[in-house]
Design a protein that fits this description.
This protein is of the alpha/beta class and about 210 residues long. About 40% of the residues lie in helices and about 15% in strands. The protein has a domain at about 30-180. The chain has helices spanning about 5-15, 35-40, 55-65, 115-125, 130-140, 150-155, 165-170, 175-180, 195-205; strands at about 20, 25, 55, 75-80, 90-95, 105, 110-115, 210. Helix 2 (about 35-40) packs across helix 3 (about 55-65), helix 3 packs across helix 4 (about 115-125) and helix 5 (about 130-140) packs across helix 7.
């Protein structure tokens, strides 16, 4: 505000603004951050449903700086919530999922899937061409607290979901000895129904929780 879209594009072409995402701009000296990208994504989610959805999958990977911004926002909706009223949310793709307390963080005014949950969903649900670079980026950034062994265990603990084998193959392309060689040694059983939450507890990982 108060500029219209064409004016913002002209300002960006002149170097007076930098493009942050599809419809958002910042001053050139402003560094992109997860908080800023989450705030930008929040602008694409209707205010009426913003507190009922969670940015996930490749949208969350973009927010964490590990992927290009997707054309449509991927929004997760907890299966315990009614999603019928959200069907007409434009510019967004809705995914009904089960979310646990370790799966969501508050970031830039938007609920976002945690880095581990994001990596899990990307491995399971995104085609390899886009998933593998995003997974490599998530694993390469220590501040995200995503560990390959933890991610493998989370995939193995996922109950009856399709694409588990394909997800492990994606991770095997990043670390063949760990994944395909069966080097993951699970000493404590994980209840598949609880997914990433129990995996984190089994390994004793103080995973991201609350607001970043």
């Amino acid at each position: 505000m108060p500029f219209a879209g064409p004016e913002l594009q002209s300002l960006a072409a002149d170097g007076l603004l930098a493009r942050l995402h599809h419809n958002g701009y910042t001053l050139p000296e402003v560094q992109g951050s997860p908080q800023l990208r989450a705030r930008a994504a929040a602008g694409g989610v209707p205010q009426a449903v913003r507190q009922r959805v969670v940015a996930g999958r490749m949208t969350a990977a973009w927010i964490y700086g590990c992927a290009a911004e997707p054309d449509r926002l991927a929004l997760l909706v907890d299966a315990k919530r009614r999603v019928s009223s959200l069907r007409n949310t434009r510019g967004c793709t809705l995914h009904e999922v089960r979310l646990g307390p370790f799966d969501v963080v508050s970031l830039g005014g938007l609920m976002v899937s945690s880095p581990l949950r994001t990596a899990l969903d990307v491995a399971l649900h995104v085609e390899a061409e886009r998933a593998i670079p995003a997974l490599a980026a998530l694993l390469a950034r220590p501040q995200q607290d995503v560990r390959l062994r933890l991610l493998v265990l989370a995939i193995e603990a996922s109950p009856r979901v399709p694409h588990k084998r394909a997800a492990l193959e994606k991770l095997a392309s990043l670390a063949p000895a760990l994944v395909s060689g069966g080097a993951v040694d699970v000493e404590d059983a994980v209840d598949p129904a609880d997914g990433t939450q129990d995996v984190a507890q089994v390994l004793g990982v103080a995973h991201l929780e609350g607001e970043l």
